[in-house]
Amino acid sequence: MNTSETKLYPGDSPEPLYVQIRSTLRQRILEGTYVPHQRLPSESELMAAFGVSRITIRQALRDLHNEGLIFSAQGKGSFVSKPKAVQNVQRLEGFGEAMAAQGHEAVARLLSIQERKPPKAAAAAFELQSGDSVVEVKRVRYLNRNPVSLDISYFPTDIGRRLFGCDLSGDIFPMLENLFAISLGAADIGIESTLADDETQHHLNLKAGEAVLRVERLTYSRAGRPIDFEYLSFRGDSFKYQFRVERK
To answer: Any idea where the HTH gntR-type domain is (predicted)?
Structure first.
């Protein structure tokens, strides 16, 4: 950024100036104009570029810091953070839904979809009989165009077979609700740290011996039927679950 760039003035938008500046900087970070660990222009440079006061710049930077898009180093300035997914577990929502609400770009790349014999955990979750099968969906999830998780999802065949031919680049939860008319209820979630296997290393660009945060999630319909059993393997440096608990 330099002083030759277009400045923002009161009246250009009904939004406060700090919101306009925050949006501009956020867009440049998400688009890769500013890359992870790159130092942002100084407060004085930003003041000159946007034609605003220091307090306005600091408010915009504070908001970006709270969103996890930048971090500060004492005496050195503000730097672009490595993209990190932060998902609140107080509400059942898909990865894309959670990231979009934070201003991030989230997409999925389908690796495979197949009907197969269920692994033991999925068979137990769905209370399947011997010989029953499931539909497995395997995808890589991207946050701001960087791979952050390998998702392996299992569905009962009456639901999973309907996913063949569907666009699976986004969240499956809204598809279940809007296309299949299945109201979602709740989910059981387990979280553990484990070493990445070869497949996970390959798709998430990890080195041998690196750990991932593995989330096991069993989602139920509102009627109480288990409908989606998943293993979500996140890069340890790219994901954080956030929740609040109360002592009552």
So the answer is: 15-83
Q: Give the Cα separation of 64 and 214 in Å (integer).
A: 28
What stretches of the chain adopt beta strand conformation (E)?
70-73, 77-80, 85-88, 106-116, 134-143, 146-156, 184-195, 211-221, 226-235, 239-242
List, for residues 194-237, the tens digit of each pLDDT value.
Answer: 999 999 999 999 998 899 999 999 999 999 999 999 999 998 87
Q: Residue 200: what pLDDT? A: 95
Nearby residues of 128 by Cβ (< 8 Å), 6 or more positions away: 118, 122, 134, 156
**Which amino acid belongs to residue 106?**
A
For the chain, give every domain's residue range.
17-80, 85-242
Compute the average pLDDT of residues 15-20: 90
* pLDDT (0 to 100) of residue 85: 65
Q: Token pair of 150, please?
A: 């390998």
CATH class of 85-242: alpha beta
Q: Whole-model pTM above 0.85?
A: no
Phi and psi dihedrals of 2, rounded to 5? -145, 175
Class of domain 17-80: mainly alpha
DSSP conformation letters of 96-118: HHHHHHTT--EEEEEEEEEEEPP
**H-assigned helices in 14-156:** 17-31, 43-50, 54-66, 95-101, 120-126
